[in-house]
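Marked as duplicate of an earlier ticket. Keeping the data here for the record.
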Amino acid sequence: MNTFFEKTVDANSFLKVIFGHLIVLISLYTIFYLVGQFSITPTSETVIQYDAGWYQKISQGGYFEDEKGHSGVAFFPLFPIIWRFFQLSPIGICILNTSFFYLAFWGVSKIFNLKIKEILLYLSISSILFFYLPFAESVFFLTSSMALIGIFKSNQKNKHRYGWKGLAIVGLLLASMTRPSMLFFFPAIFFMEFIHYKKRSDTIQNILVYSFSVILGMMIVVWIQYNATGEWFAFFNTQSEQWDNKLQLPQLPFRTWGGSKRMWLDGLAFCSTLAAFLFCTRWFWKWILNQFLLEKKPPKAVLFSMVYLTMAGVFTVFFHGEDPIGGTTLMAMNRYVFATPFFLLAMIYLFKNSPFEGKDMMWFWIFLFLNLVLLGAFAPSNFPNHLRTIVYLLFIFSFLSFHFRKTYLWSWILVYTINLILQINLIDSYLNGIWVG
């Protein structure tokens, strides 16, 4: 039965869904506040926490070093430039960021035929809170969505395909000025073009054009930061020296900032990147076996998204520093994964194309168990806080198994409700200055 929530979104239903979702979100937060569960509301002071403070200072006075010698060049310039251009207050930039996100979200929903249920499930993910805050996530979502839409449409036979390719080029350039995504984008470009290989000249042309736009965006960042600091490639030096983000062997079990109380969110992000890696490996092997020619394959935008998620996992595992109590930290991994259109496209593709059938579901649960082991969920020293991780991941994986087997189809409503409650709790934690990723 084609219920309202199973319908593909149009402009009218999209506005209704977004409006209804925001009413539920605000109402829940208000109820928790009135009953004394929450003690703070969003103000121009409370929304400036952690990275938001860096972005605000860069927007006001350019790149700088704080009293501890920490440099702001770890943050890319496009979002602070936009903030400076509009001269907005912290609350004002929150509203603008929210507008950017929903504008891009509508574009992705329309082009990729999202169902209303899929829209609500994505909006309930806890990391969505960063789209409402003075962070770069909304600008990155907007520019990356431009790239994905352009890549998707330019690969179809239509009279505007070169215009769509232009949108992809601009999106890649601007996204590369928003976040340090250059090293994520290059393998994604090569992978999607090789899997979709048909004609050598077209493949080479696409690789060169898309790669040049990414390089150009990165070089603009390098030039801006050089003018501010007098140091070439200041970002990379700062990442290595200040944040300890350099190539190193991972240490197990994985940890995250905020301790085991926050592992449920970064842990799910880690599961997502590992699943994306397996997806890419599977299609690469198919490509090899079929002598580099595939008749049926995922859309380019989906392949690009899967490689991006894979690279987010590789960067976190092999380049993040060690947690103070040991083990490689997955700090902020949920932002790199969930607060992107890449996860959204990967999610809806797998919803529509189940990777598990019949007895294959056994591997689904083995995959969950191995992830919990890597996250240290069964280590006695992590109890009882890691019970949250075990319960939450079991809850999400149960929903996915129901979805793949087409049983208990109403279970998505429970996921939406639980996730939304977790999201508003994280919003309250953030406003109180508690690290949420």
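See parent ticket for discussion. The chain has a mean pLDDT of 90.
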